[in-house]
Design brief:
It is a single chain. The protein has 293 residues and is mainly alpha-helical. The chain is built from ten helices and no strands. Helix 3 (59-94) runs antiparallel to helix 9 and helix 4 (99-114) crosses helix 6 (132-157). The longest helix has 36 residues, at 59-94. It starts with 13 loop residues before the first helix and ends in a 30-residue tail after the last helix.
Length: 293
């Protein structure tokens, strides 16, 4: 209710609202000034000249970028699927009642969570002599799968304990409790963290250029370093960065759409119940009446 105090803070009064509007205006002005300064520097350094943007009109450059983008999406798709599978497997081990299985899964998760992604990729590529694409996918899978395992475990354990106990009381086995009771309820809580980790995996595919995997960033690096048009590095960044940002935003939007669709699902949405009406309550007769004295 407007004007009422809440448990966390009091509703701001007129002076506070004016102060907040002033802060918003100042922040907007500062952001616009920063953008104007960046554009000024770009124009001063002649980053928008035809010479630096001319390479992107060549068919060979366009095919190189499209091939790199396709390789990035291929590596991400493989790493995402394998990371989800590995995360589910390790989370199952972390939740196991058997102590050796639980300890083994814990050691694997903690080890690969602490290991830098680039170190794992280089080790697989150099020491094990694996091809660039499998090495990149393996490194991303081991790291992101370990992180997702903790996300899955925390999501399952966040479900109220009464749900688990009620399912066991109905005679369900542990696998049935996990599949039909705990996981469906935990998915909504886990979804934002899962999508955030998949966005990290998508951005980390750019590490493939360090092991000569021809992904999107590697293609941009080739364009910026191998052309004689005064090194169009900034134009390459201005082309590649919005595409990376767009892919991450599309992934987040898809997750939001899936969450909204799940909420509208007939299996999860509330069912309206008709209000009670007077009628026949006893078989073979009318409404019950009070006994006569």
């Amino acid at each position: 209710m407007t004007g009422a105090a809440t448990a966390l803070y009091d509703v701001p009064g007129p002076r506070t609202r004016r102060r907040h509007r002033l802060y918003g205006v100042l922040a907007t002005v500062l952001i616009l000034a920063l953008l104007a300064w960046i554009l000024y520097l770009l124009f001063v350094t002649e980053q928008f000249t035809y010479t630096k943007w001319m390479p992107f009109a060549y068919k060979g450059i366009q095919e190189l970028l499209l091939r790199g983008l396709g390789n990035t999406l291929k590596a991400f798709a493989m790493a995402a699927v394998l990371s989800l599978a590995l995360g589910g497997l390790l989370a199952t081990g972390r939740l196991s009642e058997h102590r050796p299985v639980r300890w083994s899964a814990t050691v694997v998760v903690e080890f690969f969570r602490a290991m830098p992604v680039l170190v794992m990729i280089f080790f697989i590529f150099v020491a094990l002599k694996v091809q660039p694409l499998p090495a990149l996918v393996a490194g991303l899978t081991l790291y992101n799968g370990s992180v997702l395992a903790e996300v899955f475990r925390a999501g399952v354990e966040s479900v109220e304990r009464g749900q688990r106990e009620a399912a066991f009381a109905l005679g369900m086995r542990k696998s049935q409790v996990m599949a039909y009771v705990l996981v469906p309820q935990a998915v909504r809580a886990m979804l934002p963290a899962i999508i955030s980790q998949l966005v990290v995996a998508l951005k980390d595919t750019s590490l493939g250029y360090l092991i000569t995997y021809e992904e999107f960033l590697h293609a941009g690096k080739l364009i910026a370093s191998n052309l004689d048009y005064d090194l169009p590095f900034i134009p390459v960044v201005m082309v590649i960065s919005p595409i990376y940002i767009g892919m991450c935003m599309l992934l987040s939007w898809s997750a939001g759409w899936a969450a909204r669709r799940e909420q509208r699902s007939p299996k999860t949405e509330a069912v309206e119940v008709a209000p009670a009406e007077p009628g026949t309550l006893l078989p073979g007769g009318g409404a019950p009446t009070a006994p006569r004295p």
